[in-house]
Amino acid sequence: MAHAQSQEHYYIPHGSHWPIIGSIGVATMMVGGATWLNGAEQGRIVLMIGAIITLSMVFGWFGTVIRESESGIYNDQVDRSFRWGMVWFIFSEVMFFGAFFGALYYARIWSMPWLGGEGAGVATQFFLWPGFEAMWPQTANGPAQIGGEFKVMEAWGIPAINTLILLSSGATVTWAHWGLKANKRAQLILGLILTIALGVLFISLQATEYVHAYHELNLTLESGIYGSTFFMLTGFHGLHVTLGAIMLTVILLRSILGHFTPEHHFGFEAVAWYWHFVDVVWLGLFIFVYWL
């Protein structure tokens, strides 16, 4: 009866407390992160509390949607609403990373030549930094050498390996999708396990890269525009990979429980879209941050 009714009426969810909990969690993370970056150790604790609240919201809210979906109350129009919602979410993520790529582009293509005296920057160089050499990156951290010397991150070490890892993970999640569409649950589960394992390996190698950068290259967030753009882009991407791995883990557990059918599996598709988005962003990172 519920399934038949769902084909006629658009399901409108009941009032939920999860949005306000999510807002509290994200706001707490923001305050904690800002406080920590400004030198207060208490900010790290506040950041962790905010992360716990946010993760609780994610698991609780997703659990509600999963139960509603499994009960058969969603119709085709609800499915289209979910798809459009995911499309706009990924679009917002594209704009998010676009802002940081834009900052990198502006610093390298516009600001650096101006400071070096090109075009309209003749006066800028004369009054601000006479004798400034427009070279990217500024490994002495600019004319004032604030923060000291640092070395840039090489592309053909861990970054190249991580590129191969993420491209492979895109293939494994697609293979898992093929298994789901062919009703081969063993292939679905194995493909998801491989994808999650590759994601965890990527994060582990990136953490190793960060330790190497801080302790051996003196490359930190304070290493001029290169250091700030490098860590903002790679750091936020690493956060997205972590979130993607968590979502894939949830999808894996649902697959083991027998959820999803070859005809109805948008939960899987949404996470797969997100994972492919993360792959594409990394390719841009590898080219413009590490390689060029």
Protein described:
This protein has 292 residues and is mostly helical. It folds into two domains: 1-74; 75-291, Up-down Bundle (Four Helix Bundle (Hemerythrin (Met), subunit A)), CATH 1.20.120. 74% of the residues lie in helices and 0% in strands. It is built from nine helices and no strands. It has helices at residues 2-6, 18-37, 42-70, 76-115, 122-127, 158-181, 185-216, 224-256, 266-291. Helix 4 (76-115) packs parallel to helix 9 (266-291). The longest helix is centred in the first third of the chain and has 40 residues, at 76-115. The protein is elongated, with a radius of gyration of 23 Å. The termini are far apart. 22% of the residues are buried. Mean pLDDT is 88; it is low at 1-6.
Would you spell out the secondary-structure blueprint of this structure?
Blueprint (H helix, E strand, L loop, with lengths): L1 H5 L11 H20 L4 H29 L5 H40 L6 H6 L30 H24 L3 H32 L7 H33 L9 H26 L1
Which quaternary structure do these chains form? single chain
In the predicted model, the low-confidence regions spanning at least 5 consecutive residues are: 1-6
Average pLDDT confidence is 88
Relevant CATH superfamily of the largest domain? Cytochrome c oxidase, subunit III, four-helix bundle
CATH class of the largest domain: Mainly Alpha
What is the architecture of the largest domain at the second tier of CATH? Up-down Bundle
